Amino acid sequence: MPFATIGGITLHHRHVKTTGNARPIIFINSLGTDFRIWDEIVSALDGEIPLLVYDKRGHGLSDIGDIRSIDDHVDDLSALIDYFELSKVVLCGLSVGGMIAQGLYARRPEIVEGLILCDTAHKIGTTDSWNTRIATVESKGIQAIADGVLKMWFTPAFHAALDGYRNMMTRQALAGYIGTCAAVRDADFTDAARRIAVPTLCVAGDQDGSTPPDLVRSLAELIPGARFEIIRDAGHIPCVEQPEALVALIRSFIASLAPGAETHG
Predict the structure, then answer these.
(1) Percent of the chain with pLDDT over 70
(2) What is the rounded CA–CA span in Å between residue 54 and residue 35?
(3) What average pLDDT does the structure give for the chain?
(4) DSSP per residue over the chain, as a string?
(5) Residue 13 near residue 3, CB atoms below 8 Å
(6) Full-model pTM
(7) I want to staple 32 with a disulfide (CB 3.0 to 4.6 A). Which of 42, 44, 75, 169 is the partner?
(8) Under a CB-based contact definition with an 8 Å cutoff, are residues 233 and 204 in contact?
(9) How does pLDDT run across 198-234, given as a tens digit for each residue?
(10) Residue 175: which residues within 8 A CB-CB, separation 6 or more?
């Protein structure tokens, strides 16, 4: 299992190299998950495009660290890009991962050549909704909210397969989950989204209960020239429910970018 210790934080990752002129895609997972949610996507694209997946701090096998704001997650992503000496990347972020992608672009736009923003927004939830969730998790644990969250994450047709994803969610570090909830609560990329000047694809599952399609569409409308797509029969995590549909969108998006310099990922 590969790990990288950067700035005092150890991050669990998987780096899939290839040759050619495609930019590396970095996948950033959602709240309460680890990078295994991207397994089907990575498997499908392996050999075509250089890929990097990682567990953000407080999740999976990465260190918990101190999470005070979304900037802490952006710090880790920025440092990971430098660790692998990547000069131009495409970021594919899901939910809070999409906010981290927006934050990285706002900080270092010169290294980002495209954004794929899945089931995310410029602003997610309200202060009250996040504070209520945090209070419940602090007093009763993640398991107290798991069933309700999973019903928003996945379509009814997928509910028979939720045990593994419930385990993934409830086994996340409590401090990492709560810290990231607070980071999302306080993050607002409304103004930053208007300044995005790279090709951007915004994607929503048609049955997403966490970031509904209209919310994702509102993000696309803020970003000049952004493309908006809905994935049918999917909830909040289309990379799990409808990986083939998401892979097709990713391939189409990558093909639309101008060729880059030869890379080995």
Answers:
(1) 96
(2) 6
(3) 95
(4) --EEEETTEEEEEEEE---BSPPPEEEEPPTT--GGGGHHHHHHHTTTS-EEEEPPTTSTTS------SHHHHHHHHHHHHHHTT-SSEEEEEETHHHHHHHHHHHH-GGGEEEEEEES--SS-S-HHHHHHHHHHHHHH-THHHHHHHHHHHS-GGGGGG-HHHHHHHHTS-HHHHHHHHHHHHH---HHHHHT--S-EEEEEETT-SSS-HHHHHHHHHHSTT-EEEEETT--S-HHHH-HHHHHHHHHHHHHHSPP---B--
(5) yes
(6) 0.96
(7) 169
(8) no
(9) 999 999 999 999 999 999 999 999 999 999 999 999 9
(10) 58, 64, 67
Q: Check: CB of residue 110 under 8 Å from CB of residue 136.
A: no
Question: Which is nearest to 201 in space by CA: 232, 238, 227?
Answer: 227
Q: How far apart are CA 33 and CA 36, in angstroms?
A: 8
Pairing of strands 9-16, 3-6: antiparallel
Burial class from Cβ neighbours inside 10 Å (0-12, 13-18, 19+) for residue 264 reads: exposed
Beta bridge partners of 26: 52, 91
Query: How many residues make up the chain in this entry?
Result: 265
CA angle 195, 94, 138 (to 5 degrees): 110
Q: Which amino acid is at 68?
A: R
Cβ contact 43:89 at 8 Å = no
List CB contacts of 18: < 8 A, sequence separation 6 or more: 46, 47, 48, 49, 50, 264, 265
Amino acid of residue 53: V
* One-letter amino acid of 255: A
214 with 206: CB under 8 angstroms? Answer: no
Distance CA(16)–CA(9), nearest Å, equals 21
